[in-house]
Each structure stands twice: as C-alpha cells, then as structure tokens.
Amino acid sequence: MRRTAVALAAVALVMSTTAGCGSLQSSATEVGGERMTDDRPVRDGGTLTVALNADPDKLDPTLAQTLVGRTVFAGMCEKLYDVDARGKAVPQLATALPKVSADGRTVSFDVRKDAKFSDGTKLDAAAVVTSLLRHRDLAGSARATELAPLKSAEATGQYGVRLTLKQAYVPLTAVLADRSGMVMSPAALKKYGKNFTNHPSCVGPFKFAERVGGDRIVVTKDANYYDAAAVHLDKVIYKPIPDGSVRLANLRSGDVQVGDQMVPVDVKSALTDNKLQLFNSPSLGYQGIGINVGNVKGLGEKPGRVDTPMARDVRVREAFELSIDRDLINKVVFQGMYEPACGPMSPESALAPGVKASECPKRDVAGAKKLLKRAGVKGRVPVELKISTTPEWSRIGQVIQAMAKDAGFTVTLRPTEYATMLEETDDGHYTAFNSGWSGRLDPDGNIASFLQTQGAMNAYGLSDKKIDALIERGRTEADPAERTKIYGELTRRANDAHALIYLYRQKNYIVAGKDVAGVRVYGDGLVRVKDAGYAK
Question: Which helix (H) or strand (E) holds 281?
Fold first, then answer.
C-alpha cells in the first residue's frame, strides 16, 4: 500500500538471507525462513502472470501511491538507484553513488550512456532533470514532499547531473531509489502530458503494452533495454485478484505463476503443495488506521476544522486506539505470522530502529472509557471506517468493530475499492480508513510525506509545528546516533497525535510455481521480474 547525501548510501536492513521454503515449522512466524531469490538457470521465452492484491492506481511515477503500482513499475521503470538484497542503495540508471559537497548541498552523479526509453528516446542528463523537476513541481505530485529540498537540477554535460539543495538532505539517495528516482521519456511527457499514465515510457526490461482496468496490465520485453540480452520472458501480465484464496487457487491451477502479497492463511496452505514455492522478507512498512483530523479541502491544502468527535478531541482518538488489541488482531486475522506495530519505522531499520512489538501499548478498555468521559462524550461515538475490499481487511474491520464497541464506539464499516478509497481520502471525504505504507530505506520516507503539514500524502490533515521541525532536523542530521534520537521523538509525537494509528507490520510473502526461477523479493516488498523466467 501507499501510502544519502552524507551517510545514507550505506543504509542497511538487518535481513537474513537464509534460504529454505520447506515444510511449515512449529511456530507460524518461522514459515520457511527468509528466501528472497532463486538463482536457478532460466530458459528464454514465455509469459509470466503475476497476481496482485489490488488494481494499481496511476501508472505515472509522479502521481502513483500504491505498492502494487510499484511492483508494476519494477518491471518497466528503472530508477537512478535501486535497493539490493541487503537493503542498500545501489546504482541503477546512475553509474555510481552520488558525490556530495562538504556542506551537503551539492550532489552530482552521472547516468548510463547506453540506455534508451521504451519509445526509443535516449536517456541523458536533460531527461533526468526533466523528470526530477516534474516530480517536484507537478500539481498533485506524490513526490513533492520527498523532493521539496531540491532547489535546482541541471545537466553539466550530456550525462552529468548536478543537484543543488536548499539544505543538506540525508535521505536523498533513498528517495532516488524509489519513484522519485524514476526517469520518464521527455518525448512521451511532452506528447501525452497528464495522460502519460495511459502511455508510460521509461527505461526498463519491459515496456507498457496495454491496460484493461480492473483486469490486467501487460508489459512486453523491450528491445531498447540496455540489458535486453539478460531478459528471459517475452511478456509479463499483472492481474489484480484482491481475494488471497482466489490468487492461491489460480496459482494451483497454473493460470497465475506468481502470487503477490499472499496472506498467512494462504501461505500455510501453499506450503502443503509441492508444486509451489515461497519467497519472503521483512517489511519496512506498516498498516494502520488513518483519521481525518484536518483534511477539509484535499491533499496539499491548508488544514481546517473537521466536525467529528474523532477530529475535535485527541482524547477520543486515544480512546479509540486504547480499545484495540494489536496482539489479538495478529493472532485472529494473521495467525501470529505478522507483528504488531505502533510506529512508522520497522525495527529492521539499522539506521533508526523502530518500536518493538513488545513495547506497543496494550488494550485498555477502562482507560478508553475514562478518556471519553473526560472529553465530555455523551452516548456512543460514531465512526465510519473505510476499508479496502480484501477479505483480510474485512476481518480486521470486524475485529476492530467488536473491540471498539466495548469502549463506547459504534464503528460502521464501509468497504471501498482501493483506488477509489485513495481518491476519497485524499479529498478528505472520510472519518477513518485503513492506511498503509510499504516502507522506505530511510525513516524520512515513512514519515515526512504523511505527517508533515501539507505533506504530499498527509490525507489526515495533521499539522504540528514540532513534528515539522523534527522532520527538518532528521533530514539534515548526518550522525546516525543523533538521527535515531530525532526519529524516536518523532515517533512519540506522532503517536501522541493519534491521527495515524499503527496496527501491524506485515511480512512480504510471495508464492510462485516451482517452475518459476529468477524472481527477486527484497525488503521493499517488490516482485522483481527482470531476471525471472521458467527454470531450465
């Protein structure tokens, strides 16, 4: 789901590369170890169908917000930098990690000389500058907060790029290892403008062929790709199948070869099938509930007054959070195979470790009732909770509904197709919704766009000057120990606002047919298909 200049280049996740996906272990959390790659020899040719758990939003790197969209982009839109199996930023379209001036305000790098976009246009420094400025400046850009510190970008030659920053910006390399680092064909941008989403053109192993809304996105091998000889598949089809059990049934029938974001119950079932294999890795992201506390005019607009009990008084939001048992959600809905979460950063992050599951607050119904009484609440508090139309969120919603009832809340569930829910919540048309994020290397990527006043994905309308100041400090502070302190304080202040209630941190479970090889699944949760194909 959606929603360094000095020291970041070496940011790493503490991730095991232990192989193995055999039989189910005695503890559900030990399913198959952590197997992120398959390096068996691959034959050329064939079509791979990847089942996604939702239909991606816009296929425009500047505007897109969903994890499933990032998975599609992984097949057709390369970035200046990528993430490797160890969670480190590595060059992709750039030729090396960036060079940074002593004051951290000037960043330079070169780009590949052998790359072409899918429309045949040659990649050069000018194309990089065009994309970066579009990411920063386009109205509605989901990248605007990430690139706000960018003062200017210029080509210093045909392949050299120089970025001038308003201040030192430690997360920059991590930012350029995601959608902000995706470079789009300037010819396609000029020709299609805002309709680029229907004609995306990037540098990648595959190129866009067609999209049938709600049914499929098709990409085909790109002969213009600089490493086309290493690409085995002829075609990849991304097919949205929200129901995990249906994804699994399609895997077993052979209609689908890779199932993305498989949930624990289906993972357990898959492990009993000797025709299937499992890939999994820790997640950098989180899942939770977002509450509208000030979004009255839409994303990027000045926060205002929302006239609901949840928005008017932070004590009501705190009471709602106290009514929830994170451990029970994990056990009942996910069979103990995920992890409770109560902060934006994963404990896997080596740079700024997040709050451990054992440190999350426990359910306190009596405490919740006291808070509602202090807030002067009379009667039950109505809460409409928008949830995506997956079986998992249906179950989560029902569990939360029952829990909150004990504390004095009446929760009405409103199942909504995910892309529609994003549009509605971005516009401020909601009270609460299931809000999630797939996670980023640097902690700033999990925080700034969501919690900064008028942030690019701050659908909650949260505005807190101290949070804003801490975000700016975290972006400019190079010392890891000091950054850890800053993000610890940021987590505490974010939790005190109760505008985004963090619930759990999932693992990235990918199930594939045993004959599929060359798949890569890292901590960012993306299914990488450049090297994929069918085993020889």
Answer: strand 276-281
